[in-house]
Amino acid sequence: ALRGCAAGSGSTEADVTETSFQHSFIALLYSAGALCYAELGTTFTKSGGHYTYLLETLGPLPAFLRLWVEFLFIRPAVASYVSLAFGRYVVEPFFAPCVAPEGLIKLVGILGVTFVVAVNCWSVNLASRTQVTLTFVKMFALVLIIVPGVIALFKGKTENFQNGFEVDLITLDRLPLAFYNGLYAYGGWFYLNFITEEVINPNRNIPLAIICSMVTVTIFYVLVNVAYYTMMTPGELLMSDAVAVTFANRALQGVASAIPILVALSCLGALNGGFFGSPRMLFVGAREGHWPPIFSMIHIRRRTPLPAVLLLYPLVVFMLISGEIYQLINFASFSRWFFIALATLGMLIHRYRFPLLPRPFKVPLIIAVTFTVVCFFIVGLSLYSDPWNTGRSCALTLTGVPVYYLTVQRFHLPHRWRHFFNKCCKKLQILLEVAQQEVQTY
Questions:
Q1: How confident is the model at residue 418 (pLDDT cuts 50, 70, 90)?
Q2: Phi and psi dihedrals of 298, rounded to 5?
Q3: What are 434's strand-pairing partners?
Q4: CA 254, CA 276: separation in Å to the nearest integer?
Q5: What are the contacts of 253-262 at 24+ separation with CB within 8 A?
């Protein structure tokens, strides 16, 4: 969130005064979104997250488009910039104070993606245990950053907070790009909805998990930002490519070498969470007939959605090699937040159409409406702020419309193509040792 505003228009020290306002707004916005998805997750008990909610509320075309953009560029872009962050924190300490070579950063990022893909292909239990372990590592790293910053704050080191809440420098055109960076940091509240069918007692545990994690993340991230502001000037924050490393060299000289490792493991945890959740969306989409049947299959022994996980790997590697971190954020965020807004709009429409449908968790109407309107506003304004990246994102989303009408609504592919396609699917099924789901879980 601290570097968000710099992505829009260059790194000037005055830009940082915007972040205090943005940080508070982002925390409120993501909290409202998390509550909306808690209601969606308890109303619709299928896995698949965004895809399922759009399918149930707005129909098959928006759901297919969400599936299309998720695996065409949203998930590869998200995984790519997390991988780049992982590679930067691994490589940067070895080259400090010089600039680390981008090629080496991307190579280490690819190794991180490869490790996560291997874990998620090998075992569901191993992937979940890896996620729990890396989450504890992340919490430990955050505490390690928070403690010296808070101690310094109590000792009176407050000069970097002067005029920290002035908002007169905010320009409307830069807000969406700043929010996209900050919203990514607070993102993740919808990943649990991807695996609803694998959650025990989802009506209780989904809202409980979302609310508890929402509060925890808000507290920890606010304190981390306070720690950064206490020990570093706005200029240092904006100039640093690895803020935690700069902070550690300033405030944690005794254990400074451990911070990059902990932050890199934290990035690996975020990467693992994405690869654990997103393939379930593809799995459900294939099960509903919106994607080739091979992707609705699981490994006969390991019970992992192997084809769905493997599909992501080459896409992520390609985007990681060709992309730059802030371009990737802006590129992916337009479609991601557009469809989140559509999902919550669909929730409101579904409430109106089926007022008597049981909803174990129900978010107040004003929160849902406000969140939906703000999301549409930010998405619309981003077309003006960054027309190139958001325009490309919009265009790629629309390419799914003819694909839907040609391959899903009416299957117009030539007979030879269909025969070749079915033959390839059978060969892949034998090669990967995968089969259709036998036990209905929804």
A1: confident
A2: -125, 155
A3: 299
A4: 35
A5: 255/144, 257/93, 258/144, 259/141, 259/144, 259/145, 260/89, 260/90, 260/92, 260/93, 261/89, 261/90, 262/137, 262/138, 262/140, 262/141, 262/144
Domains along the sequence of the chain with CATH: 6-436 (1.20.1740.10)
Assess contact for 264 and 90: CB atoms under 8 A: yes
**Is the pLDDT assigned to residue 10 strictly greater than 50?**
no
Tens-digit pLDDT profile for residues 13-39: 333 334 455 566 677 788 888 899 999
Residue type, 323: G
Q: Which two tokens stand for residue 157?
A: 């080191």
Q: What's the distance, CA 93 to chain centroid?
A: 26
Q: How far apart are the C-alpha atoms of 374 and 30, rounded to whole Å?
A: 11
CA torsion, ordered 355, 359, 365, 367, to nearest 10 deg: -160
Q: What is the pLDDT of residue 341?
A: 92
Q: How far apart are CA 81 and CA 102, in angstroms?
A: 13
The residue among 4 and 290 whose pLDDT is bigger is: 290
Encode pLDDT of 252-269 as tens digits: 777 777 888 888 898 899
C-alpha dihedral, 180 to 177 to 387 to 70, nearest 10°: -10
* Burial degree of 28 (CB within 10 A; 0-12, 13-18, 19+): middle
Compute the chain's Rg from CA coordinates. 22
> Which band of pLDDT confidence, cut at 50, 70 and 90, is reported for residue 182?
low
Q: At what angle do helices 75-95 and 102-122 cross, to 10 degrees?
A: 130
For the four alpha carbons of 307, 312, 315 and 320, in that order, the dihedral sign comes to negative
Confidence of residue 320 (pLDDT cuts 50, 70, 90): confident
